[in-house]
Amino acid sequence: KTMSLSDEMNHLPSIQVNFDNSLDCLLKEIRYITREPLNYKIPGKYRELIPLLDNERTLRLHVERLRSIAIKYNYLIEHMEIEERDLFETKLNRIDEIIHRGLNEITWKSLNLSDYIEQAYGLINMDASIALETVQHDVSLIKQLAFNWSNLRGDIFDENQQNLQLTFQQALQKHQNVQAAFNEKLTMDGHKIHSLVDNIAKVIF
User: Fold this and answer.
1) What rounded mean pLDDT belongs to the chain?
2) What residue stretches are annotated with the Dynein heavy chain tail domain (predicted)?
3) Which of 12, 119, 160, 166 could be cross-linked to 171 through a Cys-Cys bond (beta carbons 3.0 to 4.6 Å apart)?
4) Which of 191, 69, 184 is nearest to 128 (CA)?
């Protein structure tokens, strides 16, 4: 059974690209010795490397893009909070599926390797990564707005108690002004929070 990222992210190991850097060195050596002036023939046990040698540039591009995907994936599973995992359940399940394919089906010889990389890059590096960054940024703003409410002045009394010298009508008028400013601030921040929540909803689905 494929492990679901949304259920078991704390237990998921990080991933890395299955590419030995020594292979890159070997390919360079083979390319050098098989060309002029050496024209050395490749031993049979290395002939399976010929397709890689013929597409060396493409191979390196695939390696770099897959490493980029692995870095972003590892970042996601390491930095996503528990509450965020519930929000990202749909995306995480899709990521789970594509990572499972990469670990169990896709090889360097797969004809659909380029398509797989494009799909994984789009889902992990672009979609999920940008969405997580957006959610964490917007949630931080919402928390800050809510925290700032605790510093709002909600009554007319201050530390020097000058307002105790006001008449009843003066105190009432001042109280109404303070309440009006308080309510206006709450209303403005409320609209901002609704906008941020709407933005979060757009990026997580």
Assistant:
1) 83
2) 14-116
3) 166
4) 69
